[in-house]
Automatic annotation (TrEMBL):
Name of the coding gene: NAA20
Gene3D superfamilies in the record: 3.40.630.30
PROSITE patterns membership: GNAT (PS51186)
Classification lineage: Eukaryota, Metazoa, Cnidaria, Anthozoa, Hexacorallia
GO CC terms of this entry: NatB complex; nucleus
Any Pfam family: Acetyltransf_1
UniProt keyword terms in alphabetical order: Acyltransferase, Cytoplasm, Nucleus, Transferase
UniProt subunit comment: Component of the N-terminal acetyltransferase B (NatB) complex which is composed of NAA20 and NAA25.
Protein name in the entry: N-alpha-acetyltransferase 20
Subcellular compartments: Cytoplasm; Nucleus
Tagged with keyword Cytoplasm: yes
């Protein structure tokens, strides 16, 4: 039985098995602690019955609460290779979407490598659309662009937040 629970500081000593995937961004300790301090409700792990971390999601709320850009953002979601294809990423995403709904967000967004077809397809199955292309998004790989994918939440009754943009943007153009 898998447990979904809040991320704890001591989890940083036990989640390296999840970050071994070359498509998973690994951040510095201060970055993880910043998310844990500012948006603890958005930082969740899935844990096996033996206590092993199977995957995690890290996100935040962004924008101005009263404006249509108020949204939940997925900074990272990843599952250890041995636990993939069990629906854990979908479970983590659903939980983040529920948190964003409770915060009265208009949408949830994320950035994904254009070359990561498995992830792009998964997000599409979860109801996300490609909102725009972000040129040279990944600093370590200037040839790799990203898709900014979005899913409208119930506050966005007209789905304005997910109407795709035609022209690509650069990272510095993202609000």
């Amino acid at each position: 039985m898998t447990t979904l629970r809040p991320f704890r500081c001591e989890d940083m000593f036990h989640f390296s098995n999840v970050n071994l995937d070359p498509l998973t961004e690994t951040y510095g300790l201060a970055f993880y602690l910043q998310y844990l301090a500012h948006w603890p409700e958005y930082f969740q792990v899935t844990e096996s019955p033996t206590g092993q971390i199977m995957g995690y999601i890290m996100g935040k709320a962004e924008g101005s609460v009263q404006q249509e850009e108020w949204h939940g953002h997925v900074t990272a979601v990843t599952v250890a290779p041995e636990y993939r294809r069990l629906g854990l990423a979908a479970k983590l995403m659903s939980n983040l979407e529920d948190i964003s709904e409770k915060k009265d967000a208009f949408f949830v967004d994320l950035f994904v490598r254009m070359s990561n077809n498995v992830a792009v397809d998964m997000y599409k199955q979860l109801g996300y659309v490609i909102y725009r292309r972000v040129l040279e998004y990944y600093s370590g790989d200037p040839d790799e662009d990203a898709f900014d994918m979005r899913k409208a939440l119930s506050r966005d009754k007209e789905n304005k937040s997910v109407i795709p943009l035609k022209d690509p943007v650069r990272p510095e153009d993202i609000e």
